[in-house]
Write a structure and sequence with these properties.
Layout (H helix, E strand, L loop, with lengths): L1 E8 L10 H14 L3 E9 L9 H11 L5 E4 L2 H4 L3 H13 L3 E4 L4 E2 L6 H31 L10 E3 L6 E3 L1 H15 L4 H11 L4 H9 L18 H9 L7 E3 L2 E4 L2 E4 L6 E3 L9 H14 L25 E8 L2 E8 H6 L8 E3 H67 L12
Parallel strand pairs: 1-2, 1-3, 3-4
Antiparallel strand pairs: 4-5, 6-7, 8-11, 9-10, 12-13, 13-14
Helix pairs in contact: 4-5, 7-9
Length: 432
C-alpha cells in the first residue's frame, strides 16, 4: 500500500512530544512495520489545527488528486486537524478518492466502520481542546495588551530584545518626518512614494528584512527586485498614531484564523508610550486633511460585474474598473491597481476591455453548456437502454431463482432418501 506521511506542529503543542521529527519517526516506523511503501511526506510548522489553509495539506491534496497514494499516516488524528467539521469534511474527501487515514498511535483507520464512533469522539475532543486553548491564549494575550504589549513596533522604532525598551530608529524617523512634511506641503501619497523611491529611502519591508533576515508576506518590489514605496505604505504611515507616542492595542480580533477590525471604543490605549516622532498637533492636522481629501462614499455607484475578480499575475494586485470614452463611445476597462497607483517601477501597464471579458465568459459558458448537453444525452441513452433490457433481465433473474429453488428441493429430497436407506449417518466420529 502506498502511503503519505503527514505531520503538524502548532504553538500550543508540547514541542518535545509532538515535534515534527518525533511525529515523522513514529509514522515512518509504523509504515515500515506494516510493509507500506512511503511515496511522500509533508508537514506544517507553527500552524493551528483549526485552519485548513496549509501548505503541507495542499501537497497532500495534490498527491491524492494525482492518484499517487492509498493512505495517509498521522501520529494521531489531531495532527490532521482540530476543527471538527472541517476535519470530517477532509476525511470524507479522502474517502471519496479511496484514501484512508491511519492514526499510528491510536490504532484508528477511517476505512473501518467500527472506528467511526471513535473518530467522531476524537473530533469532538480535539475541537473542544483547540477552542479551550484558544480562549486561554486570547485571555492571556488581552491582559498583555492591557499591560502595553508590543510585538513589532511600527516603522520608525525598534525594540531592544534584552531590555524590551522601544527606541527610535533615527534613519526611519527621518523618513517618517519627511513624509508628513511633504504631505502638509500639498503632495499626494502617490507623489510622496515616487519621491522616496527616487532618493532611495529604505522602506519598512526593507528595514525589517535587513534586521530579521526575512521579508514580510506582502513585500512590494520592483520587477528587478528593488524595495518600493507605494501609495498604501505612505498612507499607513500618515495614519499611524504611534508617532505621537500613543500605543493602540486590540485594534483587531482574530477568530477562526481571520482578522476583523474592532471599534475604537474598545481599543486599549496607552498614552506617552512611544518616543515622540511627530507632534500631536501635526498628526491631527494630517488626519483632518486626509478626511477632507477622502472621496465620499457613493451608494448608487455602478456595480461592475468583474470588480474584485481579476488579479495581476505580475504584481498580485486586483484590477480596478475604469470608464473611458473613445471616439464618442463609452466603455469599461479593467486596469492593474498596482500600476495605476505606483506607476511603471512597480508593475507594467495591464488593461482589458469588459467586452473581451464578456466574450471569454460567454464562450466558456457555451462550452460548459455543450458538455452538459452531451453528458445528458449519454445518460438519457443509458436510461433508455436499461428500460429496454430491464424486463428481460428481470425475467431471467426470476427464472434463475426458480431454478435455484428447484435444485435446493431436489437436494433435500435426495438427502432424505439416503437417510431412510441408511446410506447417511449422523453419528459423531469417535474421539482419537
Amino acid at each position: 500500500m502506498r502511503v503519505w506521511l503527514y505531520a503538524r506542529l502548532s504553538n500550543d503543542d508540547d514541542r518535545e512530544m509532538n515535534s515534527l521529527l518525533n511525529q515523522r519517526e513514529i509514522c515512518q516506523a509504523f509504515a515500515e512495520q506494516h510493509g507500506y511503501i512511503i511515496v511522500g511526506q509533508s508537514f506544517d510548522d507553527n500552524i493551528s489545527g483549526m485552519s485548513f489553509d496549509r501548505r503541507g495539506l495542499d501537497e497532500l491534496t495534490a498527491a491524492v488528486d494525482a492518484d499517487k497514494i492509498d493512505a495517509v499516516i498521522v501520529k494521531d488524528l489531531s495532527r490532521l486537524g482540530r476543527h471538527r467539521t472541517q476535519t470530517a469534511l477532509f476525511i470524507d474527501y479522502l474517502r471519496e478518492h479511496q484514501v484512508r487515514v491511519i492514526s499510528a498511535t491510536e490504532g484508528v483507520d477511517t476505512f473501518r466502520d467500527e472506528d467511526d464512533l471513535i473518530i467522531g469522539v476524537r473530533g469532538l475532543m480535539n475541537d473542544y481542546y483547540a477552542k479551550d486553548i484558544g480562549k486561554k491564549i486570547r485571555a492571556g494575550y488581552r491582559q498583555k495588551q492591557k499591560d502595553g504589549l508590543v510585538i513589532t513596533p511600527p516603522f520608525g522604532y525598534w525594540k531592544d530584545k534584552n531590555t524590551g525598551q522601544i527606541k527610535v530608529d533615527t534613519e526611519a524617523a527621518v523618513t517618517v518626518q519627511l513624509i508628513y512634511s511633504l504631505y502638509l506641503q500639498g503632495y499626494g501619497q502617490k507623489e510622496i512614494a515616487r519621491r522616496l523611491n527616487a532618493v532611495g529611502r529604505k522602506t519598512p519591508a526593507q528595514l525589517r528584512a535587513e534586521r530579521c533576515g526575512r521579508e514580510v508576506r506582502h513585500t512590494h518590489k520592483t520587477r528587478d527586485g528593488q524595495f518600493l514605496w507605494t501609495y498604501a505604505s505612505v498612507k499607513n504611515i500618515l495614519m499611524e498614531e504611534a508617532y505621537t507616542g500613543v500605543l493602540n492595542n486590540h485594534r483587531r480580533e482574530y477568530l477562526g484564523g481571520k482578522a476583523r477590525a474592532v471599534s475604537e471604543t474598545v481599543w486599549l490605549r496607552h498614552e506617552n508610550f512611544y518616543p515622540v516622532i511627530i507632534e500631536k498637533t501635526i498628526w491631527q492636522q494630517v488626519q483632518t486633511q486626509l478626511r477632507q481629501q477622502a472621496r465620499p462614499a457613493v451608494n448608487n455607484r455602478t456595480k461592475h460585474r468583474y470588480a474584485g475578480l481579476l488579479t495581476c499575475q505580475e504584481c498580485g494586485n486586483v484590477f480596478s474598473p475604469m470608464i473611458r470614452c473613445w471616439n464618442g463611445s463609452r466603455r469599461v476597462e479593467y486596469v492593474c491597481r498596482g500600476y495605476q497607483r505606483n506607476e511603471k517601477g512597480y508593475c507594467s501597464s495591464h488593461r482589458i476591455h469588459e467586452e473581451i471579458l464578456d466574450k471569454a465568459v460567454w464562450d466558456d459558458t457555451e462550452k460548459l453548456r455543450e458538455q452538459y448537453a452531451a453528458e445528458l444525452k449519454k445518460v438519457t441513452q443509458l436510461q433508455k437502454q436499461w428500460a429496454l433490457r430491464k424486463p428481460s433481465l428481470d425475467a431471467h433473474c426470476l427464472a434463475l431463482q426458480k431454478e435455484i429453488q428447484k435444485r435446493e428441493q431436489e437436494t433435500d429430497e435426495l438427502v432424505m432418501e439416503k437417510l431412510k436407506n441408511g446410506e447417511c449417518s449422523t453419528r459423531q466420529p469417535d474421539s482419537i
